[in-house]
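A brief tutorial aside. Many learners find it easier to grasp structure tokens once they have seen a single protein encoded end to end. The record that follows does exactly this for Rhamnogalacturonate lyase family protein. Read the sequence first, then the structure, and try to relate runs of similar tokens to stretches of the chain.
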Amino acid sequence: MPPAPTRWRRGGRSPPRLLQRALLVAAFSAAALIVLILLQHRHGPEPPNPSTAAHARDSSDELLDDSPPAERDPEASHSAGTGDGSTCATVERMGEEAAGPGRGSPEQASLRVREMIRRHFELHGAERVRTLPAHEFCKQGFVLGKASEAGFGNEMYKILTAGALSVMLNRSLIIGQTRGLYPFGEYISYTNQSFTIHEIKHLWRKHHCARTYGRDLNIRVDIFENPAETNVLCSDWNNWKDPIIWFDGATDAVGIQFFLKNVHPRMKAAASALFGLPDSLYARPNTFGELMRAIISPSSKVQEAVDWVLKGANPDIVLHTRMMANRPVRARKAAVLCIKRALQISHIKGTPLVALVSDTPAFVKELKSDISEFAEVLYFDYKLFAKTSGLEIVGNDKPLDFRSRDWGSAPRWVAFVDFFVAAQARYAVVTGAHRRVGTTYAQLIAALAAANRHGREPSGANFTFLSSVHSNLLVEGLSTQVGWGHIWNRYAGPLSCRHQPHQCALTPFLPPAWWDGQWQSPIPRDVRRLLEYGVRLSNTGEVDKRHLVSHCRSRKDHVKRYHVLPPYKNPARS
């Protein structure tokens, strides 16, 4: 037999070498794969929070499907949807962190504050204090809350700020009047536990507080809007001896919460007891809702109009939209989707009743046609009310011309009927807007509605506040939410994702005043503004405490006071 060809003889000896080469290649491949996995584990994106992911599956799928193709850009949607912890978060993820189930229900904290407020007015309320003997009455301190009749939300925050400060300082509350009339006095009744300046002047003279006890009746004024002069961060207001204190210029939820960063432990502790700690892992109390519940109620005429609207049936969900005469389609679609989300959360059986409140009647009509497909719709038709009810509400029939775009074309009193109708919501309040979401008016609706439910009905524990933010507002993230009166302002900085689809976000009842929470970050304008108050912020909103203490040590208290009654002059010394 002839010998085998040479190549076959080589082939016969080659398998061991091939096997060795194959094993080497496999070993290198395995090593490379392990290195890649380790690198991805160390540097890859943070996995989404399970509750956040579940929430996104429940709501964002619908929202994404509703967005136009341009808004469903795969890269943009992925970036917004994952909320990469190292870069940015969507509004929904921010809301989940601020007001989600992981923080617990605010009901328990709110009921604690309710009891604080009840005890305060029991001890320092006008009913008791006006009966005190002279030597005790003349030692009493007071806080003045004074408002004009501009925008209801901003002006009501002035009164509520005074109420909060009276609790913090253990002083009695005075609600200021103009020419003998309370602010919005035709539409709102105020607690009989508050004083007027007129009554304090009368009692001061009656008890001879200046002559006998050497205490002139004056007001110490601190203007929050003047950063160079306000003592909100640097002074212990417990030490102020003036009979009356007026903390002026706090037109939103922020001013009074500046005391949370006051450098004096007593002031900080008093503020924290009423508002909770801003960086707490637990839900913060619905402080302004509880203050409203204690201080205001609708006037008898407004209550009659509210009863006419409700006809014995409180709305399940309330939608408030501030459109300023605009009717964008995306805002409407986002609002409808957010109502559906509220219905999901609330587990309402049967046909839900949804109440609509807006400054733009034409927008309400369009919303009504959309919502009527799945809910019964309630809306205060003030023209029909005026024709058929037989009731007449005395007040300004026409809005101020220069305010008609801001407040809407309806008479002023309609906003108060709308407000107290909306405050009867049983399960949820949804707020939307053409530009800025969560105005002071919407905040107060949600706060009072929650206070009306907490401790009374099973639904109170799960009462929900939602913000509907349409995609046009999120092209640059939340950077459009400027202004301290808007609830998402503290989230408007660089941690807010760009190019988000429509968002329906859980919203805290107590608007944040600082940037201590996760995903909160300031816009450059607010960084500059806080510097004027002596507060140095990092890019993500942390306060430089050393700088604040140094600032407070380098300044003196600014004192501005006015005499309510002429100072007493001792004849023996003259």
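Self-check: Residues 299-393+407-543 form a domain with the Rossmann fold fold (CATH 3.40.50.11350). If you spotted this yourself, you are ready for the next section.
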